[in-house]
């Protein structure tokens, strides 16, 4: 069985330990020869990298492991998979993504609304650079991208690299939802055959079939309406995520046709969500006080003790496992079904052909083979068309350095709506992102 050479971009992420643990648990089905962690933040990556040495020595000693801040060492000619989870600007800029909009009376969230716009404008350039760096050495490596906001990044990469069919943008939130559905129904998430349509962080499940072809969505809908909704890993989640999942009940009650992606709360109930947000203590602060502190502490304890056994930080999670499931399906041409982000090309027949839609697909060695959805109802079509216009204009604003298109994008976004508010928050974000964005004209 071939062993693969893998690069993790964003090695200092607090999600990396879960990804490493996933690699250990799947070493018989997705064997790795060489693993390199790459990050531009040497301090963060060292904390995770030293922990990784301990974990891999105990659970995966045959892997040749290293971590580096030198792209020349990370990106070589024999790479098979690049697993990308970068965060341009780190938590310092994420905090601005959340707090600048809130200071203007708008939702502050890292992938949705003005915050997502700001993050997208930062991510596009780094992702283009990454693809060029990888392709300079390896034209055949698969680039599996988690980098947010995935919807905007996917549009940008398809625009800049239209013929590169080995870039696959993915998101673990549909996987998280499938795991949560499975826990409610007593069904393993891999035994579902989902039908899903939308854009990233902006989609719906229309059907959820079991292995015998029964649609479990009606039963699931009733369970959510009767008892609410929680993530499968609720015990490990911060309060803001529990609140987010809880909103699914209201969305289903108001729009019972389908089951929504949790992020739709920001677009369907912006006023209601805004009232819950604390401008002085946002999700970034919650992560820094919670998950980040726990992960780095546990990594340090493992390094000090010289063992990663019984370390809480290495629990498997959807983020770490999902990207490996996809890689494994590609590596061995398994054709397993996953929800991924692809150019529409008629998959949703009444949406723009060039939209980057999120749908179920069979993942093969030659890439995804998506399942067509057909026409969608007017309400969902209208929401998606407006959101896609926002995403497309955001990418055009970056590539053309256009202030006018940036303003159009934010005016279209359902969390903003007002052109006057859009201009106020855009001007503030221009200042906050100086040095990260191109100069807009």
From TrEMBL:
Binds 1 NAD(+) per subunit. One of its GO terms (biological process) is carbohydrate metabolic process. The record marks 110 as: Increases basicity of active site Tyr. Keywords: Cobalt, Glycosidase, Hydrolase, Iron, Manganese, Metal-binding, NAD, Nickel. It comes from the Bacteria. It holds the Pfam family Glyco_hydro_4C. Substrate binds at residues 94, 148, 283. The active site is at residues 172, 263. Mn(2+) binds at residues 171, 201. GO terms for molecular function: hydrolase activity, hydrolyzing O-glycosyl compounds; metal ion binding; oxidoreductase activity, acting on the CH-OH group of donors, NAD or NADP as acceptor. Its cofactor is NAD(+). Residues 196-416 form the Glycosyl hydrolase family 4 C-terminal domain. Belongs to the glycosyl hydrolase 4 family. This is 6-phospho-alpha-glucosidase. The lineage of its organism: Bacteria, Bacillati, Bacillota, Bacilli, Bacillales.
């Amino acid at each position: 069985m071939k062993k693969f050479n893998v690069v993790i971009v964003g090695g200092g992420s607090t999600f990396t330990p879960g990804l490493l643990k996933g690699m250990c648990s799947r070493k018989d089905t997705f064997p790795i020869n060489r693993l390199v962690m790459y990050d531009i933040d040497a301090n963060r990556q060292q904390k995770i990298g030293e922990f990784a040495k301990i974990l891999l020595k105990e659970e995966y000693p045959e892997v040749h492991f290293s971590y580096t801040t030198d792209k020349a060492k990370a990106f070589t000619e024999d790479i098979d998979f690049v697993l990308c989870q970068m965060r341009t600007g780190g938590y310092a800029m994420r905090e601005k993504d959340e707090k600048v909009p809130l200071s203007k009376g708008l939702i502050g969230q890292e992938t949705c609304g003005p915050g997502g716009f700001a993050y997208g404008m930062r991510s596009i350039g780094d992702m283009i650079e990454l693809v060029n760096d990888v392709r300079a050495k390896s034209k055949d490596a698969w680039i599996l991208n988690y980098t947010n906001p995935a919807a905007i990044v996917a549009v940008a990469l398809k625009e800049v690299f239209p013929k590169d069919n080995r870039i696959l943008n993915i998101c673990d939130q549909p996987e998280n939802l499938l795991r949560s559905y499975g826990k409610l129904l007593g069904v393993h998430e891999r035994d579902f055959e989902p039908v899903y349509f939308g854009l990233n962080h902006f989609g719906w499940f229309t059907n959820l079939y079991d292995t015998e072809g029964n649609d479990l969505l009606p039963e699931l809908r009733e369970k959510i309406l009767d008892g609410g909704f929680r993530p499968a890993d609720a015990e490990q989640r911060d309060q803001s995520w529990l609140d987010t999942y809880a909103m699914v009940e209201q969305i289903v009650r108001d729009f019972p046709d389908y089951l929504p992606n949790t992020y739709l709360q920001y677009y369907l109930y912006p006023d209601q969500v805004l009232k819950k947000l604390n401008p002085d203590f946002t999700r970034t602060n919650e992560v820094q006080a919670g998950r980040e502190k726990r992960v780095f502490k546990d990594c340090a304890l493992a390094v000090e003790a010289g063992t990663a056994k019984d370390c809480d930080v290495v629990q498997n999670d959807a983020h770490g496992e999902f990207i490996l499931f996809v890689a494994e399906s590609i590596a061995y041409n398994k054709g397993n079904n996953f929800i991924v982000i692809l150019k529409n090309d008629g998959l949703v027949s009444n949406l723009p052909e060039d939209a980057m839609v999120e749908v179920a697909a069979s993942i093969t060695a030659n890439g995804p083979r998506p399942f067509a959805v057909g026409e969608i109802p007017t309400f969902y079509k209208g929401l998606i068309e407006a959101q896609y216009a926002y995403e497309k204009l955001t990418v055009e604003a970056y590539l053309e350095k256009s202030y006018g298109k940036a303003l159009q994008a934010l005016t279209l976004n359902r969390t903003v709506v007002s052109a006057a508010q859009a201009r106020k928050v855009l001007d503030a974000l221009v200042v906050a992102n100086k040095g990260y964005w191109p100069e807009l004209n």
